Amino acid sequence: MFDRYEAGERAVLVHIHFSSEDNREDLQELEMLVSSAGVESVAVVTGRRSTPHPKYYVGEGKAEEIAQTVHQYQANVVIFNHALSPAQERNLERLCECRVLDRTTLILDIFAQRARTHEGKLQVELAQLSHLSTRLVRGWTHLERQKGGIGLRGPGETQLETDRRLLRARIKSILARLDKVSKQREQGRRARQRADLPTVSLVGYTNAGKSTLFNAITQSGVYAADQLFATLDPTLRRFEIEDVGTTILADTVGFIRHLPHDLVAAFKATLQETRDAQLLLHVIDCSDERMADNIEQVQLVLEEIEADDIAQLLVMNKIDQCEGIEPHIDFDEQGLPLRVWMSAQQGLGLTLLQEAISQRLAGTMVEEHIQLPPTAGRLRSQLYQLDAITQENLDEQGNWLIDIRVPQVEWQRLCKHHHELLSNFVNSVDKD
Length: 432
Known about the structure:
Elements (H helix, E strand, L loop, with lengths): L9 E9 L8 H10 L3 E10 L10 H14 L3 E4 L5 H11 L2 E3 L1 H12 L3 H15 L26 H36 L4 E6 L5 H9 L16 E7 L3 E7 L9 H6 L1 H8 L3 E7 L5 H14 L7 E6 L10 E4 L5 E5 L8 H13 L2 E8 L4 H9 L3 E6 L5 E8 H10 L1 H4 L10
Parallel strand pairs: 1-2, 1-3, 3-4, 5-7, 5-8, 8-9, 9-11
Antiparallel strand pairs: 6-7, 10-11, 12-14, 13-14
Helix pairs in contact: 1-4, 4-5, 5-6
């Protein structure tokens, strides 16, 4: 049903330069996408236009050039670095006598290859079906024929109408299954909220090094590769942060300029992990000459998923590929970490990153002088485990007189689980 690639396919790439920023794409990024899809690029056709042509997207002369290039290199697919309308795809396919795909279809296919979990596969299929629903008419005349045969003669639906009906039914079924998965994810989020476990989510442009950083922080074996969209399915792991305690780290799908809207809608449940995070680690490839533009594109996607108001810590990754940059932290006017310069691949600056996360998550420390009865041994043990006790004495009645210094997150957690013992301190003012 879908435009799926096979090993050994030969592609002609088409990239048009536009003066308008809205239509501007990057040729190098297209080549990386094609490589990630496992397709061989045999030729690149470029050109300039002020606006797309309604029939071929490119001018008629350029369309003829593309067709000639296809025949010259015996290519079996043409890939545009732009979004084509269904009519433009059909017209180009007739002219080139091979499949013509646009940037959105290419990204969808890469996602289909990368999906591993049940939820990921459902999300990709939903995005593909939503995209395909406008492209059922591909110029094949058999789709317009009505069904024939005994019992099927006379007024009836065409093959095209049947396909559309089946498509709607499949989309409805996938949405119902994704809704069930979404509820299961919501249960997990509520459980983490009840345990007061803060969540840190990795975001950033695709191939910025998020999965490599995720593995370095959590000592996990998540798949990481130097290719676009190496990570598709979200992964969550626990890790310990000084002055904060147990924290959840979420590795999410990378963003890309002009991310297809069908994908954003399909991955709504996955991106919820980003929206519910207390801190976003915005991973940036500081060796990429398009760094500023990539940062802007990530911010646009964060706005689209309504996560742009969450606190961010910029992680300037891959300093090993830059000259003269040592691991360090940049602070803002309030003295909070703003940027961490490091290399996840080489393990440079990991300690600095953990310090920065600790400072951003811990916020103010709580200092209290509390009195615990002899029966509160469990709470006293927890305070020792948190390394929160700075001084301890016994009074004449055998009560513990304890000075504590603990992160605000841990203090709120203790007050919730030991409300009776700490009720006098629940509304206390932070001292540090």
